[in-house]
Sequence to fold (643 residues):
Amino acid sequence: MITLEGITKIYHTGEVEVAALKGISLHIPEGEFVAIMGPSGSGKSTLMNLIGCLDQPTSGRYILDGYDVSALTDDQLAWIRNRKIGFVFQSYNLIPRASAVHNVEMPLIYAGDNQQRRERAMAALESVGLLERAGHLPNELSGGQQQRVAVARALVTDPAILLADEPTGNLDSESSIEIMKLLRDLNQQGRTIVLITHEAEIAAFAQRVVRVRDGVVVSDERPAVATEMAR
Amino acid sequence: MSILEGLRLAVNGLLSNRLRSALTMLGILIGVSAVILLVGVGNGASVAVQQQIQSLGSNLLTVFPSNARSAGGVQQGFGTGSSLTLEDVKAIANRQSSPDVVTAIPSAGGRAQLTYGNQNWNSSLTGTTQDFPSVRNYQLASGQFFTSGEVDASSKVAVIGPTVATNLFGGADPIGQVMKINRQNFRVIGVFAPKGSSGGFNNQDDVVVVPITSAWSYLLGGRGRNVQQIYVEATSAEATTAATTEVTQVLLDRHHISDPAQADFQILSQQDVLASASQTTGVLTLMLGAIAGISLVVGGIGIMNIMLVTVTERTREIGIRKAIGARRQDILLQFLIESMFLSGLGGALGILVGFGLARLLPIAVSALPTPVISTPSVFMAFGISVGIGLFFGLYPANRAARLRPIEALRYE
Fold:
């Protein structure tokens, strides 16, 4: 599903060159639930931007669902993001003036997919258990509910991967467990999930944990036993 | 993303900042209503001037003597020559040599001081012949005009305009009364009906008309038997060109001039006057429109300003939209529709306000001509206002469309 080959990313800030990623190779097969862990400054956000097609690597190859996305134009990347990737952000990133259901159907609007748009958005909301909140604005919902709306928005186009960037970073522990269980359920239904986090308890929900430090992969393991919280 | 979806987004965006949207719209509203109103005033002035000129008679030709030359050959003022005579008038009026001419009248005059009892009035004096009312489109309200007999006899009779009647005689009936024109006694035998022309320099109701022979004998002393102008009535407005040719030929023959370029007279038709007046009012309309147009441009800059603020404010939203798959053109379209909707709505409201002001203005300021609003100018004003939204929205929208998603998402 995802193949990264020798990915590097160098940022130019004035005269200084900062290598955020120094050659990362990674393969994530379909249906896997992978957590990418690392402290701040490790390059995990850069990696997430590249996997999410929000940015292009300086060198290396990135194959997503059969598409080589390391050399696409902005509009082609927009298409990939729209069809292949569902984003869940730390700060939910819902459009404040739009109702929950309108937020969820937004990717379909940009896909130019008008067939049963409202029905599909409602179905996605139902799958995260928020059908009765469809008409509410984001600021009328709790943090956990907003994040579930964001998950519904990520799912509505039936993407190849779900990319969750610190999805529990702004939530209390109860809502965090709810969201993580939702992601685990989605994975058990066959969805490929890439989770970016720095919390071990959260990473424990994944089948596989990839640790990144200073722009390189330092470990890649499958913990045999899930932690207490993830059970 | 469909246009309809974009329109929904635009309305949503504008409603989220009602006061700001309303104020921005106000800029365009004022601009468009100013254009509508001022162009309407210009057109109104044009129509009024044309009506005034038409009331002189659109089939009227005026023959002026050429400018006199001093001994050294220096040109004197317009119409200062003395080449026209009463015999010229009679020759022009002859239907044999000029079939397109109904009749012709001489004119000589100037300013005159009128006195009646203890009242004084300064008016425009014209000495002419019995055909004056038909040639110059005057109707008589009471009394009668002088006859050819009275012209031949140099009778001291006068016909006055309604302005003179009001100012000199007050409410009294002027017919049969004797007034003084430049200290000479003249009997008033008729009063013209008002021509309804506006006040000012050329008030056609503020006139006193006497037989040209009497004017020569008693009022224009020392200037000889000189015809200052000849008014020629052509058979119709269409016949003025033919009549001009005929009059030219008659006068050239009579004055023994073979080269038309050396003619000692000039002929001006009302069509010429109308054309030059239309040109003048056209320039006036253009100037008023241009002044109003400036306010429209200022309104457009206001839109650009607000759209730039909006784009900055919504940087994060743009980032979210891009992350979930909006292409550049989707973002561009969203903001363009928003600015065009803003300016288009402002323009539509401006048209309504412009119409309203055009109705109210003549009531408030009676000196202004009634504004005439043409349908094309309304459509043009609306089109221009939408165009302004497009033009001034393009830069902010393009700026939004070019935002990089990761940077936009990171924006707080």
